[in-house]
Write a structure and sequence with these properties.
The protein has 162 residues and is α+β, with helices and mostly antiparallel strands. The protein has one domain (10-161): Peptide Deformylase. Helix content is 28%, strand content 31%. It has three helices and seven strands. It has helices spanning 24-39, 122-135, 146-161, and strands at residues 44-46, 56-59, 67-77, 81-88, 91-101, 103-109, 115-121. The protein has a five-stranded antiparallel beta sheet with strand order 1-2-3-6-7. It has a two-stranded antiparallel ribbon with strand order 4-5. The two termini are 24 Å apart.
Length: 162
């Protein structure tokens, strides 16, 4: 299992780099990411959260198959927005309501190096957007009111001292 980096680690603020080559090393990383996500009871995990700066994330929400997104690109978002409470394995025990587009269209490469596109809505759309944010150095806390963000970060730091 891989270690999940948490709030305060500067890597979480950096843009990830494109995966140049689909090889055994990438496949091994993806397998370890799934193991780590399942062990931590997550539904999405980006490579940056385990200290790897490649543009990779995975998802596995209820009633959906496990998915791998390599070098993902957001193609389109819906005009309709939804508010939903989000949490993050890199910011444990902290949740906040985040407004995001209700539906998205993505393209990416799968684990076998094949391109695909995907129209997603509901929870899958939200998880995809959350994980893509990680690849762009954005945390869900960056998408909420500044004062609420500061309050939640103070609370997070207090929890870490315990």
């Amino acid at each position: 299992m891989l270690n999940i980096i948490t709030l305060g680690d500067e890597r979480l603020k950096k843009h990830s780099i494109l995966v140049p080559d689909f090889n055994g090393e990438i496949n091994h990383l993806i397998e370890q990411m799934f193991e780590t996500m399942y062990q931590n009871k997550g539904i999405g995990l980006s490579a940056v959260q385990v200290g790897n700066m490649f543009r990779i994330f995975i998802t596995n929400i209820e009633k959906d198959e496990p998915r791998v997104f390599i070098n993902p690109e957001l193609i389109e978002t819906s005009l309709e927005q939804e508010t939903f409470e989000e949490g993050c394995l890199s910011v444990p025990e902290i949740n906040a309501d985040v407004i995001r587009p209700a539906a998205v269209k993505f393209q990416a490469w799968n684990q076998k190096g094949r391109p695909f596109s995907l129209d997603a809505d509901n929870l899958l759309a939200r998880v995809i957007q959350h994980e893509l944010d990680h690849l762009n150095g954005i945390l869900f806390l960056d998408r909420i009111d500044h004062k609420k963000k500061e309050r939640l970060i103070r609370h997070y730091k207090q929890l870490q001292k315990k």
